[in-house]
Input
Amino acid sequence: MQFARKLFSKLLVFVSLAVFCSGLMTASFLPVNAVNLNSSSSILATNSSMVDDVLGEGTTNKVEGMARQGMGTAEQNMKEAQAKAEGSLKQAQGKAQENMGDLQRQSSEAGSDLEKASDNVVDAVKDFFGQ
Output
């Protein structure tokens, strides 16, 4: 989202410079509320015909399209990064659970081995004393 906003602000600077260089810059051109990236209405709603007159027909739509495309790409990248992070988290959780299972098995085997060893010691002592 931030990438799209930076891209759009650079495009606005370019458009503003082009209009200024043409000598058509006025105090009412591109007011602060002309840029609204979150609405479904036109991004360059104010004086879009002036922009088209100066920079050629279709410039407003082109700039808006590029801004929306950038926003879409940024949103898609954010979703991919989030999905990747969630996948990594699930992998880590699975590995931790697998390791717990290994520890439980090894603990059980160690207990069993210890029990066998103690039985062998008892048997060895009995054999030694002849019981």
